[in-house]
Design goal:
Layout lengths: L3 E4 L15 H12 L3 E5 L17 E4 L4 E4 L2 E5 L4 H13 L3 E6 L3 E3 L1 H10 L7 H10 L2 E3 L10 E8 L5 H8 L4 E9 L4 E8 L4 H11 L7 E5 L5 H6 L2 E4 L5 H6 L2 E2 L7 H8 L8
Amino acid sequence: MSKYIFLDIDGTLYSTTIGKIPDSAQEAVRLARKNGHRIFLCTGRSLAEVSQYLNMDVDGFILGAGAMVYADHKRIFDHPIDAGSIARIKRLISSFGLGYSLEGSAGAYCSPKGYEKLLWYFSGGVTDKDKQIEKAMENCTYPESFGSEESDSIYKVCAFGEEWKPVYPAIEAKLEAPFILTKAMDLKEEHFCIGEITDGRFTKATGIDKVLDHYNADAFDAIGFGDSANDIPMFEKCRIGVAMGNSTPETKEAADYITTDILDNGIWNAFVYYGLIEGEQ
């Protein structure tokens, strides 16, 4: 029976260490689709930030952590954040000295501090500044002067810092409803944190609901793969939640199964474990 497979991107499908999707994961996705399973990328990234994946052999996308959904090349759900709320969130993040990015349909627009953080994130270990900028542009990530909430629809705001506590909890305490802050990444050794601010009424689980409704499918046939806290609603919606070996502790705790690290054939091994594909890597 066909399964509905929901794959997070960053830390699950895409590795910052090598700056790409591991070959074994690419092959696992190809074979799973060949076997009749439906594949959806389920990410906090915006439409622009998945531009390099739009021709990937998948059935659709859940973007902005559930705020925009595509299935069968159609946009079936769309709920951007209003400009007034974006302005207030920007002021709040800046008041704590953090950088930010505004993730929209056409690009991700960064404050100076946020841009420097994302240049490092997308570098894949490259230190040459021009090449870092080139890699960021491949991911449609730009300085804020390229556009903002006045010129694009924004679906998520990311706050970039070096340590989670005490700054991020303080930001969370000042957020106005319905907005929530979720720990997306906390790389302690690299002093790199990402906090995602989204409309709390919409999560990755919301996106999965929209996809399953579109196909008249049941959550019993859904499997979610992730590595961070914003993937936990996905695990709760799907019958099976799979955490990568490199996941945060709270993500592993919420999962039904923990596979190997992203760079240790994590996607491939989990696909084999659940019978989505056959073979050894």
